[in-house]
Amino acid sequence: xxxxxxxxxxxxxxxxxxxxxxxxxxxxxxxxxxxxxxxxxxxxxxxxxxxxxxxxxxxxxxxxxxxxxxxxxxxxxxxxxxxxxxxxxxxxxxxxxxxxxxxxxxxxxxxxxxxxxxxxxxxxxxxxxxxxxxxxxxxxxxxxxxxxxxxxxxxxxxxxxxxxxxxxxxxxxxxxxxxxxxxxxxxxxxxxxxxxxxxxxxxxxxxxxxxxxxxxxxxxxxxxxxxxxxxxxxxxxxxxxxxxxxxxxxxxxxxxxxxxxxxxxxxxxxxxxxxxxxxxxxxxxxxxxxxxxxxxxxxxxxxxxxxxxxxxxxxxxxxxxxxxxxxxxxxxxxxxxxxxxxxxxxxxxxxxxxxxxxxxxxxxxxxxxxxxxxxxxxxxxxxxxxxxxxxxxxxxxxxxxxxxxxxxxxxxxxxxxxxxxxxxxxxxxxxxxxxxxxxxxxxxxxxxxxxxxxxxxxxxxxxxxxxxxxxxxxxxxxxxxxxxxxxxxxxxxxxxxxxxxxxxxxxxxxxxxxxxxxxxxxxxxxxxxxxxxxxxxxxxxxxxxxxxxxxxxxxxxxxxxxxxxxxxxxxxxxxxxxxxxxxxxxxxxxxxxxxxxxxxxxxxxxxxxxxxxxxxxxxxxxxxxxxxxxxxxxxxxxxxxxxxxxxxxxxxxxxxxxxxxxxxxxxxxxxxxxxxxxxxxxxxxxxxxxxxxxxxxxxxxxxxxxxxxxxxxxxxxxxxxxxxxxxxxxxxxxxx
Length: 736
Known about the structure:
A hairpin with an 8-residue loop joins strand 1 (21-25) and strand 2 (34-37). With 736 residues, this protein is an alpha/beta fold. The strands form eight sheets. Strands 11-12-10-13-16-9-17 form a seven-stranded parallel β-sheet, with helices on both faces. Strands 18-28-27-19-26-25 form a six-stranded parallel β-sheet, with helices on both faces. Strands 2-1-4-3-5 form a five-stranded antiparallel β-sheet.
């Protein structure tokens, strides 16, 4: 795409020049765009990124369309200048509007997600380089000769490169400049990303993979489509969509891969590099500002072919997007619950529709929403029913903890311990899974029963013995463990209750004293580099037993991992959450899928106090489709998503009485249309979060009702105090 800052010629597909009055949307908590006057010498179009005055300051905004003529001419302020960068593409501008309307979010807050690299809006600073002039210096020392010899190829070099290559000091180069032998030149370096090699092959595709590739390729370049790539764990889904990416790049277009957690992509990046010879551009919160600035501009200018990223990558300014892939599409991490509340998977489908391109949703455990869309014919299906190569799916055994409980204060059953012993004896690896961070989820006083609670949230403090801290996993509050009970003053009477991964590691070290043990949790693996280092240790077999939370479940391939023990398989089933059974099945199925991914057979033991639960029965039988059928029937009977619609209103504020009164007023003014039902107000399960009191209401409707319109009208009937916030969550994923 041509750079609108450097040319007034509209590229293909660009709207025509706007009139002298334009609307500019600002990335601020503002719902509407503001009118501005365009200078006579500046032809502006929708998507152009500009600087405009706002009160006594200047801010960046985006031209959103024609002005409204509602502001008198004498009150109009003038656009100051257009940034020297490509405009936001039309499909991204339309996505901003769509997300704002669908989620009932402030439009400026959604735009802010598309402008998260403000330094990228200006070109990088010019760099100084040096090259030969053709004039010989009067005095030629050996050092000067080396510099001139390096420069004989005619290339301009920066000071650091020239000093390094010639093996001289900077003063030698400066002396040659003063003598006239070298001249200074300035240049702006905006390199393109290394081009992927489309001819490389990392694996030989199976017949199932080849068929899936052929099915997806028929939809490339043919406009909008959604394909579910449904394959069992270890079937090679990644290699299939790699081929779709290769075809997209061959057509000169860009590809975006969304992943639920970027810290877990170390093995994925290695597989990509083996397939294409280079790594893709990464986009996530840990990217350093210089790389973020370069990446944003390179993506906007079409100089990047493939981007892999977390949710925020969906709002990047791709100039020629041709394919979107959502890996692990079922994962709850795609739901953003702070700020603009949206599901990146669903909004990725929207962006694909707006751009008129295909999207692939990949999963071994598709969400019920996606499965229903496939069944109704809205989405296409490509299947991989078997594991790739000689690998077979693991056997899954349910351990009834009611019949064979471990000793008091222990968490590993005899059956699981015996299986791990056999695994270690065979020089294979084991994984113990417990979805609880830290050492213990609760600390209480044995004398008075006092429980150590977060002062900002209605949650217990989690003990982290490795760091000697008590931590709140919701607001981040932390403190050192007290020596005395804060309630009764008793000494040495505080007891850790229940297990976390640290406590499980302590037990494993006692049960398997010769084993090398490591913990993999979000607070022990800080960022992509730490994750990659731990994965390399596991792959190199420097770890015998890996103990982890849900981050071990996603996409990892460890050839010698043959035994998996799920310590508390029932953990996610408590609380009556709408999606509790679905999420638990998905998580445990994905965890189980880490076992036996090579030639060695895998075995999984699920420790449960509810072996008769449908989730446990489905996991043991391996009948995923039957589980989805039963879950679908239950949701349909209740009119719950995906067969009905939900919207949550979360009322919060520092003053409990104000929050309670606002929630009561919302309840009194709730809609009573046919096909609607409002539950609440009621205290939220997390009645206090980050120092704010919370109440919830839940609106339930049929799919025929425009739930956004209903909520908007509902909110208009209630006056909300300034200190109280009402957050709307369309299609809520959790109910905390």
